[in-house]
Amino acid sequence: MTKILIVEDEAGLRQGLEINLRLENYETAQAADGEEAIRLFHSERPDLVLLDLMLPKKSGFEVLDHIRKLSKVPVILLTARGQETDKVRGLRGGADDYVTKPFGLQELFARIDAVMRRTDVAQSAKTICEDALIKLDPSTREASARSQKLKLSPKEFDLLMYLFKNRERVVPRDELLSRVWNYRVDLNLNSRTVDTHVTRLRRKLQKAVGTDAAVIVAVAKIGYRYLGEVPVPA
Ligand code: CA
Prior knowledge:
Layout: E1 3-7, H1 11-23, E2 27-31, H2 34-44, E3 48-52, H3 60-70, E4 75-80, H4 84-92, E5 97-101, H5 105-123, E6 129-130, E7 134-137, E8 142-145, E9 148-150, H6 154-165, E10 171-172, H7 173-180, H8 191-209, E11 216-219, E12 223-226
Parallel strand pairs: 1-2, 1-3, 3-4, 4-5
Antiparallel strand pairs: 6-7, 7-8, 8-9, 10-12, 11-12
Helix pairs in contact: 2-3, 6-8, 7-8
């Protein structure tokens, strides 16, 4: 279960967050000042930290500094409206994201999900993906199909890896946009971007494998699925 450390000196907000996060099935720990935050960070080993910046005893920046010297655990800042420089300073100091008070719970949950997904992706990023057809090595970014080297663009590589890892199901275009393209940072993308990349990727795979058979299939109006092994050409 994911454990979240809530660092917030305003008791009402802290307790409200605790109740709502527990309802969403998160484990929680609460700190009301910067020193307690550091203490609990060590004893509770949270998977994610919600961190207010203006805190008694030690500021959120000091807490963030302390955390970042030791770990990459995701940190979401709870910032006050209008504190633009604080947000920037926090993000530069290694925070993963922020929400501006007053924030809605749905927004906070969405940010927590997104940050946790990125962390999962980063953790599994070094595993080599391999089946009878392809091999993808994320640490060297080398890809091959039937032992033939594939020349993939970075996005094509990420796309193939994501489809491969989720090959038991059809992956919707929207999910590809958010997970492979991280579309929050580029709003000019749309599902046609996905289609274009998949088309190119398919061609490269078919050429390497020497077949017209689809290695990645399109499922009408939904998305794509990696099929893996295709019949050996006669
Ligand atoms: Ca505060």
